[in-house]
Write a structure and sequence with these properties.
Chain lengths: ~450, ~300
């Protein structure tokens, strides 16, 4: 009896494994056949596209386009309006918005692994060499202007991703708090910046809201500042040839020393390990806190919690006393189109419309993804009026990413350690060691 | 159709057909992913690409050769200490609320309620309690005249942060342990106490000689839950401190998650999870061994 029972259990397990393997086998099969169908279809669609000229094909394009978006707040509001305006041009294309979970990057990766990507999405952090595996080439979009960051998400000379909007980082400040503290002129050197901080502090205002605890708000200090200080747009990638990329006298050490100095002088929150992001937006809006050093996207968020548009200003952070102003120019998320999409042309039409006509970049507070378009936002205009030089970033080198990941290097976390440490040099030494080891292990 | 089968056969057919669904679900959602995890731990998978290059024991070698990875276990010690305190407090309240106290059901409910709350919500809530400048805890201290103590950075002091976080766990899980202890207390036959009282035992003696020995298996269970809980803490530091300040409150599971999702080393992260699994088995095994030696009569 006992032996029989064991046999039965064994049989059940066997049967189940059979079902399971059957499952996964089927899945990949169906995925492949779908892919085949699409590739079989696209040439026809392409020829159709080529035969008919612009406007005619616009009316003929039809189908459903799914767009997985991280802007869940826009679903049912601005997006509805977009669809309405889009459908005036392409009445037969149906747009469906999918709300992402909080971790967009991870969600897309899971769907990549399972072969269930939406038609239009943003590119997660995968190496550029993997782009052709999942996404369609976007060289044939036919945009009216050049795009920015052309070589960022390209591989083998083909374009796979277009930025949704671009941003720069700088000091977002409360104008009234500045005026009340007696600051009449926007600081153009590091020393005058410190003076401004001192005046704010004397006036009972927290000069700069770092949101140190949350770690991600330190991104501008470690991703933008080093290459801006070095005046080398490819500086992060030059680390590939270094065994000790973090030194006191290069971009990383200098940038992190800036925020360390602010903390030592008491120009950041009273306890930087206990900060509250949501509250800080309100505090900057009502002048209890003076400044942020973040991307320009934060401007709209501060206005969103109740600040007057005229009361919020934006200027580049003067990182030294030379008087030369430079700031980093960065792409946001990149749009990409699923190469196995059933409605490839319709998806591309929607993408083109989003880039050229939607006005999304103004709503989101970005600079346009298209070259040479001026922002409608007052703060960005003010920023550019300082004569700042915008330094376009470079795509991260694959091998540099590999070394960073292998060494588990998380720059904002290093900045946290750097600021909190008694001797910041030990922090740099520690991570240099990790870097050198990872580099050696990988053989670069 | 079943009538022709013997009673024994009918019985086993029924048992197996009833078991089929739950066992299938269990295999599908627990053992299949677990088997996959073991497999991943031998690969260098990055989390999304179709290729999963086999690397043998490299990941395990990395786990054991990198002192950083095991170092974070010292942070879990605070949770363990708080877990022990939590159990002592739980026994105290269980004994108290098992007696003839007026309104004992209301008190039980009050103490149990935090357990029902969602972990992330609790973490958020305590974010406001522990805030240095505006937190309710520091404001309370200040209004009591403890100005110096009222400026403590509860989540920003490296030695203190783990205990602050663990005390949140105490608040949340104490009621749960207490309910289990109350159930155990009610299962102890009253006549033992009566006999002891007749023999002249006082309250403390009957607690020490009757209540505690009778609750031993349940205490073991709760300690098991405490130890595994302490090793697997994740949500509290993840929401409240993100492992800060400068990694002082990072826990092992948090590190696993970071390795997998931030640094794209699924293989290494899987190996770390498997190591944790064995770690839990070893610690619990040791605990069982020590505790069962204490009770000679068992």
């Amino acid at each position: 009896m006992k032996r029989k029972g064991f046999l039965l259990v064994f049989m059940i397990v066997l049967a189940l494994t059979g079902i399971l393997t059957g499952c996964s086998g089927n899945k990949s099969n169906s995925g492949n056949s779908a892919a085949n169908n699409v590739t079989a279809n696209t040439p026809e669609q392409n020829t159709a596209e080529q035969n008919t000229t612009g406007q005619n094909s616009a009316e003929k394009l039809s189908g459903k386009v799914t767009f997985l978006t991280n802007r869940t707040d826009m679903i049912g509001k601005e997006y509805d309006d977009y669809v309405k305006r889009f459908n005036e041009k392409y009445p037969d294309i149906q747009i469906e918005f999918e709300a992402s979970q909080t971790d967009y990057n991870q969600q897309i990766k899971v769907r990549m692994a399972s072969g269930e990507l939406p038609d239009l999405m943003f590119i997660p952090d995968i190496p550029n060499s993997d782009l052709p595996k999942y996404f369609a080439s976007l060289d044939d979009l036919g945009l009216s202007a050049d795009i920015t960051f052309k070589d960022f998400k390209a591989y083998d000379g083909k374009l796979y991703g277009i930025t949704t909007g671009n941003s720069t980082s700088g000091i977002v400040y409360n104008k009234k708090a500045f005026a009340d503290a007696g600051i009449t002129e926007i600081p153009k050197t590091w020393d005058s910046f410190l003076e401004a901080c001192e005046k704010l502090k004397q006036n009972g205002v927290i000069p700069l809201s770092s949101n140190f605890k949350d770690k991600w708000p330190l991104g501008s200090w470690v991703y933008d500042m080093p290459r801006v200080i070095e005046n080398n747009r490819d500086f992060p990638n030059t680390r590939l040839n270094m065994d000790a990329p973090f030194t006191m006298d290069n971009g990383y050490g200098k940038a992190m020393s800036l925020i360390r100095a602010l903390n030592e002088k008491g120009y950041l929150e009273k306890d930087i390990n206990s900060t509250n992001w949501e509250q800080s937006k309100k505090d900057v809006a009502n002048g209890k806190m003076g400044m942020y050093f973040l991307g320009n996207w934060v401007i709209n968020q501060v206005i969103g919690v109740g600040a007057d548009t005229e009361n919020i200003g934006f200027f580049p952070l003067p990182f030294d006393n030379s008087g030369n102003l430079r700031a980093a120019f960065n792409p946001d998320f990149f749009y990409a189109v699923n190469k196995n999409s059933k409605n490839l042309e319709a998806t591309k039409a929607f993408l083109k419309w989003m880039l050229e006509d939607s006005g999304y970049e103004d709503f989101a507070g970005f600079l346009s993804p298209l070259e040479g378009r001026e922002s409608k936002l007052a703060q960005l205009a003010e920023f550019q009026a300082t004569g700042v030089e915008l330094q376009e970033g470079m795509p991260d080198d694959l091998q540099v990413i590999e070394i960073s990941n292998k060494a588990q290097i998380d720059l904002p976390a290093i900045a946290q350690e750097f600021v909190l440490a008694k001797d910041p040099q030990t922090v740099l030494d520690k991570w240099n060691k990790a870097w050198a080891k990872a580099k050696q292990d990988l053989g670069y | 159709m079943f009538g022709t089968l013997s009673y024994k056969k009918q019985k086993s057919v029924i048992i197996f057909s009833f078991l089929l669904v739950p066992v299938a679900l269990l295999l599908l959602f627990t053992y299949y992913p677990a088997a996959k995890l073991v497999w991943f731990s031998f690969t260098d998978w990055d989390g999304y690409s179709p290729e999963k290059p086999w690397v043998g024991f490299d990941n395990y070698r990395e786990v054991f050769s990198n002192p950083d990875i095991f170092g974070v276990f010292t942070h879990n010690f605070a949770y363990f200490v708080m877990g022990i305190i939590q159990n002592i407090v739980a026994i105290y309240f269980a004994v108290l609320l098992n007696g003839k106290l007026r309104g004992r059901y209301a008190f039980r409910l009050l103490l149990f309620l935090p357990y029902i709350m969602n972990g992330v919500a609790v973490a958020f809530m305590f974010g406001y309690v522990f805030d240095t400048t505006q937190g309710s805890l520091n404001l309370l201290m200040q209004s009591l005249g403890l100005a110096k103590l009222g400026e403590t950075s509860w989540l920003g002091t490296p030695g203190l942060v783990n205990y602050s976080l663990a005390s949140t766990g105490l608040w949340r899980f104490m009621g749960y342990n207490m309910v289990i202890y109350i159930a155990a207390l009610q299962a102890i036959p009253r006549d033992i106490y009566e006999a002891a009282t007749i023999d002249g035992a006082n309250a403390w003696q009957s607690f020490w000689r009757i209540t505690l020995p009778n609750m031993k298996p349940v205490i073991q269970l709760n300690l098991f839950l405490t130890v595994t809980g302490a090793l697997e803490v994740f949500d509290l530091p993840f929401v409240l401190t993100k492992g800060g300040p400068a990694g002082a409150s990072q826990t092992y599971v948090q590190r696993v998650v970071e390795t997998a999702f931030a640094f794209n080393h699924y293989g290494l992260a899987s190996a770390m999870s498997i190591v944790l699994l064995f770690f839990v088995i070893i610690v619990v095994g040791l605990q069982q061994f020590v505790l069962s030696r204490g009770g000679k009569g068992k």
